[in-house]
């Protein structure tokens, strides 16, 4: 029986606490292992951006796989790294690894997929920056520089009132309309990509937090986009 070291990664501590993302990754990896008759003997969870390569839990997973002969399994290729060179180093590390969403890739195709994924992320980033710069040049106000605190200070009456909360949420969403439209015009069409773009551009949520697919969905719903 193939022994598996499972590796899961989320980008923020709030995702780890809520279980958002982790549950889906675990389900994906376990589904693959069950279908192949593989046994998960160790699990490693990292809270770190995929842009960074100094990840102790990933190193621990690699060390475990190398010492025990286990296969390293992740839910998706981007859970390992967003950096193609880093993924190629993993491919050449001597550790057998695969991805639950594409378990039949070989050592050649996983390298090609890593390069293609990185190129697409760079293109999206370039289009996003260009779209935001163009919108700013047209005089559009992007983001909400004062954050949720300014909206609360500007509010009147009882903030616990439902109508007041809805009004503030709508006002916050409206302050981001030009930003969202600019991002959409750059080719960003999924909730995940929109959340990543907002976070990469240091635009906070109404509660001064990071964006997730659920918060982006709510934002688009309020804007009717």
Characterization of the model:
- The protein is α/β, with parallel strands linked by helices and 225 residues long.
- The chain has 10 helices and 4 strands, in the order βααβαβαβαααααα.
- The protein has helices spanning 13-18, 22-36, 56-68, 84-91, 107-137, 147-154, 162-175, 177-185, 191-200, 213-223, and strands at 3-10, 39-47, 71-74, 97-99.
- It has 2 domains: 3-105, Resolvase, N-terminal catalytic domain (Rossmann fold), CATH 3.40.50; 122-223, no CATH class.
- Helix 4 links the parallel strand 3 and strand 4.
- It comes from Novosphingobium olei.
SSE topology sketch:
Elements: E1 3-10, H1 13-18, H2 22-36, E2 39-47, H3 56-68, E3 71-74, H4 84-91, E4 97-99, H5 107-137, H6 147-154, H7 162-175, H8 177-185, H9 191-200, H10 213-223
Parallel strand pairs: 1-2, 1-3, 3-4
Helix pairs in contact: 4-5, 5-8, 7-10, 9-10
InterPro entries: Resolv_N (IPR006119), Resolvase-like_N_sf (IPR036162), SSR_resolvase (IPR050639)
Pfam family, one: Resolvase
Organism: Novosphingobium olei
Query: What name goes with the CATH superfamily of the largest domain?
Result: Resolvase, N-terminal catalytic domain
Strand content: 5-15%
Main beta sheet: strand number and arrangement?
4 strands, parallel
Pattern of helices and strands: EHHEHEHEHHHHHH
Mean pLDDT: 77
Organism: Novosphingobium olei
Keywords: DNA recombination, DNA-binding
Domain Resolvase/invertase-type recombinase catalytic: 3-139
Protein name: Recombinase family protein
